[in-house]
Amino acid sequence: xxxxxxxxxxxxxxxxxxxxxxxxxxxxxxxxxxxxxxxxxxxxxxxxxxxxxxxxxxxxxxxxxxxxxxxxxxxxxxxxxxxxxxxxxxxxxxxxxxxxxxxxxxxxxxxxxxxxxxxxxxxxxxxxxxxxxxxxxxxxxxxxxxxxxxxxxxxxxxx
Length: 159
Fold this sequence. Notes:
Layout: E1 14-19, H1 33-52, E2 56-66, E3 75-85, E4 89-99, E5 106-118, H2 136-155
Antiparallel strand pairs: 1-3, 2-5, 3-4, 4-5
């Protein structure tokens, strides 16, 4: 892929499904937060690779909100989509839903914003294609991501 050719957010959309097993859960029978983060990280990586057609590495988790517990035996559905593309990095939004396999009912359980960086064959950051939003919602997500990036870069040296 030519890195100057833009891609739409829809072209990066990635959906993963995973069954929550007892080994994935704490003593309350709820999925470990770290296990959910690992799944979200994988989903974000796949969405970003679909956008840039390059390997990627995780740079940061900008925000994670655990909204509801997920119990053993439930199915988690993770959906990742590129919110914004910068020079070598991308912000990916991941939403996690839990599905009761008996009733089929779903509830949003987690949301995360993850920044990933594309890398070339030498392991150095590589340019990514621009994001071409198609809807007002996609444009708004891109603008909010750019503002988060601006704030993140301002405060990067403070840690």
